[in-house]
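Progress narrative, work stream C.
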Amino acid sequence: MSHPSSTLEQRYAAIVEILRDDAGVTFGSPAGKGFGASALKINDRIFAMLVGGRFVIKLPKERVDALVASGGGQRFDSGQGRPMKEWVAIEPASGLEWLALAREARTFVASQRSDLSQKGSQGDDSR
C-alpha cells in the first residue's frame, strides 16, 4: 500500500480503520490524552502508534535490529533518553509496508500475553 501523496496521519488512519475491527484490537484511550492516546492496542497493550510524525511499532528485538540495520527504521526513544529494544520508529521514506508491519506487531504483542499466561500457569517466577 504505497501512499506517496498521503500524509502520515492519513496512512495511519487507514491502518486503524482496517485493524480496529479485529478481535481484541482497540484504538486510543478513553481519556484521549497522553502516551498511547491514539495507539492501536491488542488486549489493552499497545502495538502501533503515530508519534511525532513517525509510525512506531513493537516487534521482537531481533526484528527491530534487522529493520534498523536495513535503514528502514530507528530504535524508538519515548523521551526517557534510552532507546527501547522492542520498539522501532519506521522511516516515512523507507518504502516499508505499514499495514504488514502493524499486523506483525499485533501478532507479536498478542503472543506476549499468551507467553506470560503460560509462564504463570507453569509456576515460573523468574522476573
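Work stream C, second folded protein:
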Amino acid sequence: MDSLEVLENKGYTSIAEAEREEWFLEGLLEGEAKGKAEGFLDGEIKGINDAKREMAKAMLLKGYPISDIAIISGLSEEEIKDL
C-alpha cells in the first residue's frame, strides 16, 4: 500500500489536504494551550489582587493609616478608600 492509498483510506484526496488538516489541528492545539495559559495567569492575578484587597480591608478595620496600607499592600490610596 503506497502513501496515497493510506491517505485515501483516511478520507484525504491528496497529500496537500492531509497537510492542511495537520496544520489546522496543530494550530488548534497551540491556540487551546495558549488560551489555557492566559486564563490561568488571569486567575492568578485576580487571586493576588483579591488577597491584597482583603488584607487592606483588615488593616483598615485595625485602624492602620491609609498611606501605610498603600505602601504595604501595593494598592493605591484611592483603591483603599473605595473598599
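The longest helix spans residues 15-61. No further action is required on this item.
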